[in-house]
Amino acid sequence: MEELKNIHKVSLEKFYKIFNTTEQGLSSLEANKRLEKIGKNILVTKKKNSMIINYLKQFSNFFAILLLVGSILAFLANHLYPGEGNLYIGIALLIVVVLNATFTFIQEYQSEKIMESFKKMLPSEVSVLRDNKRVKILAENLVPGDVIFLEEGDKIPADARILESNGMKVDHASITGESEPQLRKNIPTHNNILESRNVLFSGTLVQTGNGKAVVYGIGMNTQIGKIVKLTKETKSVKSPLHKEINHFIKIISRIAIILGIIFFLVSLFLGNKATASLVFAIGIIVANVPEGLLPTVTLSLSMAAKRMAKKKALIKNLESVETLGSTTIICTDKTGTLTENKMRIETIFMNTKEFGIDEPNLKDKIGVSHLIETMSLCNNAYINHKGEHFGDPTETALIKFANTQNNVDSLTNKHKRLRESPFDSKTKRMITYNKYKKGIRAHLKGAPEVILEKCNKIRINQKVRKLTKKDKTLIINKYKEIASRGERVLGFAYKDIKTVKSPEKEYIFTGLVGMIDPPRKEVPMALKDCKTAGIKVIMITGDHPLTAEAIARKVGIINKNAKSNIMLGDELTKISSNKLKAFLKKDNILFARTAPAQKLQIVKALQAMGEVVTVTGDGVNDAPALKNADMGVAMGVIGTEVAREASDMVLMDDNFATIVSAIEEGRTIFENIKKFIAYILTSNVPEILPFIAFVALGLPLPLTIILILTIDLGTDLLPALGLGSEKPETDVMTKKPRSRKERLLTKNLLFRSYGIIGVIQAAAGFATYFFILYSGGWVWGQTLATDSLLYMRAISGFFASVIIAQIADVLICRTKRESIFKTGIIKNKLILLGILTEILLVFFIVYVPIGNKFFGTAPLSLLELSISIPFALLIFFGDELRKKLIRNNNKFVLKYLTW
Fold it and tell me: Is 654 a catalytic residue?
């Protein structure tokens, strides 16, 4: 219905007709009929699958299917050829699939809490007028037309129109983004329903006072219901890392399957049995697929998340750690994020002069006592017996300052309040009427231009005289000057009267007060780091553009001498998407007077331009933007639960500088993941070539499948984790954000792993393998039984040589540009532990009888074990040369050997 859009503006008589109700509310019979027809007052979230169904879904992705097929084939091969280790291969592959599925399920389970948090915003019970009696009912049984009663501390259960308000103030921050509690009235005060004082919104909180209202919107037909609907419709954006891992898995898996099929067919062509060829194909697939990749990535991200938690950044979605590193734009709030969220008095203007609050002997200045009186008495903030301050931030700042100049309790006790005309957005002023010995004094505070309109006199020093046009011009100019510094300005006045019904005119102007929410000290440096790192920062705030611009210049979002580009919320609503994109391409931009819901519009426009967007938020209305952003960052101190649940990261200190620290961590993790991918891929070559040699050259198989799995899941895992915890290289925050087109798996990385390092590792393995065979009297073409001592020693030598070469590989993977000698060979303790584990595992497999029996291996001599060392040294010092050439900007190396 069209009239529901303006339900706050229609007369109460018409309102009652629309909803077929009265100020006495509904009868129980009528309420039950409506409940049956309309439904319950609940927020409908998407139908949830059972946890078992969600868990089983994790086994349907390509990687899981590939490993499951490999596991089934291994069990089949074990059935056909028992006792050859295929059973252990099948079990190992199955464990990998279960581990990967469990990690993914846990992450998705956490994200499902977003919608559930909306429901927590509604109360369980509500006081309602039924059958002309005040009774308590379940909030979910409310219907349109019900009359409800609200007290201080109550959560509002539905959208409703005010019938009575007794000093009732409501915290609407979660819906509209307004930081201060809003006074409620029973008459419309604005065309926009969100700003009108005669309505209440579901999920908000009564801070002070009490009142009565009639319900017009329940469940999904409320303002919060619209946000739930929008959040449901807003798709979560897959992180860049998620896309990259999937891309990497697809390529590697395709290589594995294609090679498996090719060599299965080749094996058949060469006359091998189908079953033997199948076992061979399984070996090729197992050798190519990096089974330990996903657990390694997940554990590395978990370690990064723990490091970030120490820096007050709580990561909820592990993959989002890396997303921060690829961020190109940060859309940030102002209050509490860039600033301290603590209003304080900065400037006083009286006697036509400006004073700082640190002015010596300010208390002794003539005229300040009148200003302090109005600050103290025209104020609803208070100080309890413990010295704690309560009230909205602006009034609390006034009372804190006033108490340093005079005893506020003494003033309020001495001059009792007789009446109050509260502040609202229409009048932009507050008046209190207080008792004095000689009668009544009215104290007035509010917007300077409003205060000046009500004044005809001015107090300068001890004299009161007529307020001239010249005085007004001076005051207005001073007001603009103070506001341009980022301060919020209030005007103050008073007059002595005989009755509280005195008209609002003929006041005596006493002065102006400028307040500021100061920028956090660490923010300017953090913003400077953002610019160095090629990240653009955009402020989105509901504040006045003058205040927003002043803060933006102070912290460095807008360059001090540059022209600012400011767009207001009203303009944002009307602008076309093309014009918005053109505006977003400009420098020194900010959005002022915007509603939190408009963040989603800005975020989508930026993403359409190809940007990776991190957005901050704290209210319910921020949830869609936080969810849609590439990286949603919620405030942990002032943020709502819904905002925290919709986000990927929660700032436990609400500090912008924490985001910048997290970005450095995010950039590092991408580089580190690339490092351990480069590391684990190299061993694929010495794992694949033995099978090719087995089929093409008729050699005894140089490396068994069970030893391949030992490399992939045993010796590779800890060193790869060590690479995941590597500290950032010195230039990580001087580079531009990585392009969306930049891949984890590049041609150069493949060439480096498969064409250079992997080949050297395979050469080391074959050198040892042939040395042992020929030393033992083997001749070309001779077959060896798998349980013969010579064969077991040969495969032991091949395996040990690959591990020794991998030790050199993990050391060179620690840096891409810097020399390992500069970084420090022994600084990464996890890599040292990984290397020690590799050595111990080789010792167990090669020299311990239990290991020999399980893996089909045999002990080696020291000479046989040392054959691979020259190959390891070639890998180590060859890469040191490559890094030196990169640092010297060698064009060939930069183009072909940089990964």
Answer: no
